[in-house]
Amino acid sequence: MLDIVLFAVPASLVILGALIVIFAKNPVHNSMGLVLTLASLAVIYITLNATFVAMVQILVYAGAVMTLFLFVIMMIGVDKPEQTREEIKGQTLLVSGTLFILIGIISYVVINSGFKWDLWFPPVDYSLEGTPNIIAGTLFTEWVLPFEVISLLLIVATAAALALAYDTKPGKKK
Amino acid sequence: MIEVSTDWYLTLAAILFSIGFLGMMIRKNALIMFMCIELMLNSVNLTFIAASRHFGTIEGQISVFFVLVVASAEVVVGLAIIVSIFKKQSSASVDLLRTIRG
């Protein structure tokens, strides 16, 4: 009973936050909905025995990434209403209709099979705790090359962001 | 007695991905489209972690780390692009972007 509650409450909060993200008008409300989704996902990760990933989710996503989002929202300005005129005629209606049909087909298949996804293997009976110890033991031995490559990616992204933000117009001398 | 199985987590991830995709399609503000990309990435992360629990391996959680790093790099570059677009046309709407049109 307890594990059902521990699934249902964060899951409904995840969906509520996601709906706030796509339907709220004020960008600050959108980002707060995203924070709700990310924090509830961290709770779900804890119930799935991924404790370290849950901590990283809170720190990196709900902390750093959302701070960045809020910075940009405040720079761009929140009180400007979103432009609602459609440049492509009937875009929203067309996309919503297509999505509705697609999601309808998929949910028909899923519900018809009684929410059973064909997973090929039964679940294991032991539980593996995702502590920093175990994760580091695999990450720094088997996966050390992707780890180094991803550090290169971060440096390139930082340099790209600097290059984009830096004003290189010849007329403006600092 | 109902038990929470991996199927439930996969269903939640599918719902989250659909919501993110819907938002990506109907919103015109570039910032909110970015948030919808984050939603979709997070649903994939949830799938990875549910699979990691299901199969009793740690590789799923390591994949989540890589997804996380790629997502933050993408956010940094994307937000820089949005700010420079905003400097040029003082709006973050993607429909007004016609500079590449021939």
Would you write up a description of this structure?
Chain A is mainly alpha-helical and 174 residues long. Chain A is built from six helices and no strands. Chain A has helices at residues 2-23, 27-47, 51-76, 91-112, 132-139, 144-165. The longest helix of chain A is centred in the middle third of the chain and has 26 residues, at 51-76. Chain A is extended, with a radius of gyration of 22 Å. The relative contact order of chain A is 0.06. With 102 residues, chain B is mainly alpha-helical. Chain B has one domain (6-96): Helix Hairpins (Orthogonal Bundle). Chain B has helices at residues 6-26, 30-55, 59-89. The model of chain B has no long low-confidence stretch (mean pLDDT 85). Classes of the chains: A mainly alpha (174), B mainly alpha (102). Chains A and B meet through helix 1, helix 2, helix 3, helix 4 and helix 5 of A and helix 1, helix 2 and helix 3 of B.
Helix content of chain B: over 70%
CATH topology of the domain at 1-78 in chain A: Four Helix Bundle (Hemerythrin (Met), subunit A)
Our count of helices of chain A gives 6
Shape of chain B: elongated
Helix content of chain A: 55-70%
Into which percentage range does the β-strand content of chain A fall? under 5%
As for the number of domains of chain B, it is: 1
CATH class of the domain at 1-78 in chain A: Mainly Alpha
Q: Count the beta strands of chain B.
A: 0
Q: What is the name of the CATH architecture of the domain at 1-78 in chain A?
A: Up-down Bundle
